[in-house]
Amino acid sequence: MATDAKLTMQPERPSSFHRRRAALLSILVMGLGQIYNRQWWKGFSFLIAEIAFLIASFDFLNIGLWGIVTLGTEPFLDHSVLLLAQGIIAVILIIFGLGFYALNIRDAYRVGRMRDRGENPPTLRETYRMITDKGYPYLLVTPGLILLTFVVVFPILFTVAIAFTNYDLYHSPPAKLVDWVGFSNFVGMFQSPLWQNSFISVFSWTIVWTLVATTLQFALGLILAVLIHQKGVRFKKFFRTVLILPWAVPSFVSILVFSGMFDDNFGPVNTMLQNIGVGEIPWMTDPMWTRVALLLVQIWLGFPFSLALCAGVLQGISSDLYEAAEMDGATAFQKFRRITLPLVLYATAPVLITQYAFNFNNLNVIYLFNQGKPAVPGQSAGGTDILITWVYKLTFDTHKYNYAAAVTLIMSLVLMLVSLYQFRKTRAFQEEDLIQ
């Protein structure tokens, strides 16, 4: 008797009949689950959307999926690059369609679950209110997401795909077809002496260029900001204005002016060095001296931004910290090392990481100064080429699009890994005290 009483006291579980049937019908055809749930307008809307998508894009998807697999079969008739682009767009459209399809199934299951609990399905007016209330942020974000997909994601996927083909000057459609070659481009880049030497030289100089140029320009900006921030310094506004002037001049103008100043034969830099008895320096013909000149130019172009950034951070540091340090007998260097530097790095860490990433891909300085020259025997890259300028030359000078895409892929992976590591290590995005 006790057992029977316990069984009668247990609440009855809601049925799962409606939710399962609605989800199954929506899996078969979009909108059928909503029609089963008596949401007629919503159901017919999903149904019309599915029919319109299939009618409007069936031929495009069919040709695109065939093209991305085969890259064409007949020269002059099939354009491999266009087929590849169409195939990538087809894949993106399929992903969007599947997402909308999953939304249809989820909606039918959710309303079916309400019916299983004995609740009435939302009316058309209630659905409209729910969309405009809870779904309002998604309605605003969706157009930007679609635009971002085709403006940013599509070029990235296209570049990644080109890295696994043989697309170059000798395999250029429509006269020639492009074929999938797998990892042959990457293997050839590290096996061929010409490409191996070029890649090692360019990659090592890119790392040195990024670290040295960014670190020195930030260090110079920080030191100048600290000096100007001192209490006894007068005309602070004048000094800040004068030192920020290099940032106000367009960078390409400054780079072209410096290119003329460092000219081996007629440049004023060598003329001045001759007048003081030092002699000429091969700024444009010796790779080592050209790299030194590039670093000097980048430091000149980059330190004003660091100066303005650090000056703003220094304004926010409380003077009580320095007064307490003076009472403890701290020297000027100790105050800089224990207070100024940690707080400045804490506040500027995200921006500093972006500066490293910017210089890693800084095409302007390298290419406008001397186009990555001088030439180096046994290499396909110049003595001052970084990865981005080498990619530019491979694309527009030698038309080796496959190798350019492969180098771009390697470059992007290195940059993403380093940036991710730095962002994870820095505490700039964490709400915690720096000084413990």
Give your account of this protein's structure.
- The protein has 436 residues and is mostly helical.
- It folds into 2 domains: 11-182, no CATH class; 187-425, MetI-like fold (Orthogonal Bundle), CATH 1.10.3720.
- Helices cover 73% and strands 0% of the residues.
- The chain is built from 18 helices and no strands.
- It has helices at 2-9, 17-28, 32-36, 40-70, 80-116, 124-133, 136-162, 184-191, 193-229, 236-248, 251-261, 268-275, 287-315, 319-327, 332-360, 363-370, 387-396, 401-425.
- It starts with a helix and ends in an 11-residue tail after the last helix.
- Mean pLDDT is 86; it is low at 1-13 and 431-436.
- It is found in: Cell membrane.
- Belongs to the binding-protein-dependent transport system permease family.
- InterPro entries: MalF_N, MetI-like, MetI-like_sf.
- Keywords: Cell membrane, Membrane, Sugar transport, Transmembrane, Transmembrane helix, Transport.
- This is Arabinogalactan ABC transporter permease.
N-to-C order of helices and strands: HHHHHHHHHHHHHHHHHH
Q: What structural class results from the helix and strand content? A: mainly alpha
User: Portion of residues in helices?
Assistant: over 70%
Oligomer: single chain
Compile the SSE list and pairings.
Layout: H1 2-9, H2 17-28, H3 32-36, H4 40-70, H5 80-116, H6 124-133, H7 136-162, H8 184-191, H9 193-229, H10 236-248, H11 251-261, H12 268-275, H13 287-315, H14 319-327, H15 332-360, H16 363-370, H17 387-396, H18 401-425
Helix pairs in contact: 2-5, 4-5, 5-7, 7-18, 8-9, 9-13, 9-15, 10-13, 11-16, 13-15, 15-18, 17-18
Domain ABC transmembrane type-1: 203-422
Organism: Kroppenstedtia guangzhouensis
Keywords: Cell membrane, Membrane, Sugar transport, Transmembrane, Transmembrane helix, Transport
